[in-house]
Amino acid sequence: MPPSLLPVLVLVLAAPAAPSANGTDADLRTQIPSEEAEETHSNLTFVKQSISLIGTPSASVERNTILHSPSHVELTCNFSGDINSVRVIWKKEGEQINSSHIFINQTGNVLYTQYTLQILNSTQLGSYACVFEDAVERRGRGVFNFKVPEVHGKDKPLISYEGDSVVMICKSENSVPLTWIWFKVNETGQVPVETEMKEKYELASKYANETKLKILQLSEQDGGSYTCRAIFPLGGSEGKVDLKVLSYLVPLKPFLAIAAEVIILVTIILLYEMHTKRKQNTTEGEKEFEQIEQLKSEDSNGIENNTTRHRKI
């Protein structure tokens, strides 16, 4: 081979293959995820969720998913019907997503779309939606909600008394948080509980997915709302506990009220008896007076009659 042709041959061999005339290679690149475009994390959890809108046109289907750790997520939606004029839009919290990781395919009268992403922190949590719509209306919608595990406190308020102690408990749902933090809610917001004050607070928990805050020597100022925050790899989640601290006089109030009612009732009865006796005594006195007056009158009549008789004689 002549030396002058060697550079030309090298250029021809190094040139990339031209795409086919029907665009098949380009179509495949829009339908198959590009592994090179994704940042690889070997420790990610793989999460796959799908929503089928087949046979349910103009429907909205929602799916909730709890993520315990950073994850590689694959979301899939299927839609059937008259798909000739239907377009697919992916949204996050209502805002349209423009990503090279959105893939669309059509098989017969079924429209298929997939969105792959990595959820590595709390900002990537939230609501993702696949929307099928035409020029006139929305035809179907699938919603994927991602959030960290929930934390539960206590629905009803805890009630204790001044000088006593109380234990407040929070638990997470089948997930162990990295740490727990307690807050006291006041007028300005949440204030961290000073758990290092051992004479006032004690932290204890039997299980890793729960936390217990014990408050010693309760005072009226300890009453109020408390927040327990669990910190997970993807963010925080909170529960709430309400505490009411009562004085020991509070349980006595019903007794004192009953005692007051009894005293009032007894006083009324005594006054009524005294009034009745006084009335009876007055009535008896009047009767005696009438009897005396009657006797005097009879005696006077007797004397007058005798005097008259003597005069007649």
From TrEMBL:
<dbReference type="GO" id="GO:0070593">
    <property type="term" value="P:dendrite self-avoidance"/>
</dbReference>
<keyword id="KW-0770">Synapse</keyword>
<dbReference type="GO" id="GO:0007156">
    <property type="term" value="P:homophilic cell adhesion via plasma membrane adhesion molecules"/>
</dbReference>
<dbReference type="GO" id="GO:0005886">
    <property type="term" value="C:plasma membrane"/>
</dbReference>
<feature type="transmembrane region" description="Helical">
    <location>
        <begin position="254"/>
        <end position="272"/>
    </location>
</feature>
<feature type="signal peptide">
    <location>
        <begin position="1"/>
        <end position="23"/>
    </location>
</feature>
<dbReference type="InterPro" id="IPR013783">
    <property type="entry name" value="Ig-like_fold"/>
</dbReference>
<dbReference type="GO" id="GO:0007411">
    <property type="term" value="P:axon guidance"/>
</dbReference>
<dbReference type="Pfam" id="PF13927">
    <property type="entry name" value="Ig_3"/>
</dbReference>
<dbReference type="InterPro" id="IPR013151">
    <property type="entry name" value="Immunoglobulin_dom"/>
</dbReference>
<keyword id="KW-0325">Glycoprotein</keyword>
<dbReference type="GO" id="GO:0045202">
    <property type="term" value="C:synapse"/>
</dbReference>
<comment type="subunit">
    <text>Interacts with SLC16A1, SLC16A6 and SLC16A7.</text>
</comment>
<keyword id="KW-1015">Disulfide bond</keyword>
<feature type="domain" description="Ig-like">
    <location>
        <begin position="57"/>
        <end position="130"/>
    </location>
</feature>
<keyword id="KW-0393">Immunoglobulin domain</keyword>
<feature type="region of interest" description="Disordered">
    <location>
        <begin position="282"/>
        <end position="313"/>
    </location>
</feature>
<dbReference type="InterPro" id="IPR036179">
    <property type="entry name" value="Ig-like_dom_sf"/>
</dbReference>
<dbReference type="InterPro" id="IPR003599">
    <property type="entry name" value="Ig_sub"/>
</dbReference>
<keyword id="KW-0812">Transmembrane</keyword>
<dbReference type="Pfam" id="PF00047">
    <property type="entry name" value="ig"/>
</dbReference>
<protein>
    <recommendedName>
        <fullName>Embigin</fullName>
    </recommendedName>
</protein>
<keyword id="KW-0597">Phosphoprotein</keyword>
<keyword id="KW-0732">Signal</keyword>
<dbReference type="GO" id="GO:0098632">
    <property type="term" value="F:cell-cell adhesion mediator activity"/>
</dbReference>
<feature type="domain" description="Ig-like">
    <location>
        <begin position="149"/>
        <end position="247"/>
    </location>
</feature>
<keyword id="KW-0472">Membrane</keyword>
<dbReference type="GO" id="GO:0030424">
    <property type="term" value="C:axon"/>
</dbReference>
<keyword id="KW-1003">Cell membrane</keyword>
<dbReference type="InterPro" id="IPR007110">
    <property type="entry name" value="Ig-like_dom"/>
</dbReference>
<feature type="compositionally biased region" description="Basic and acidic residues">
    <location>
        <begin position="284"/>
        <end position="299"/>
    </location>
</feature>
<keyword id="KW-0677">Repeat</keyword>
<keyword id="KW-1133">Transmembrane helix</keyword>
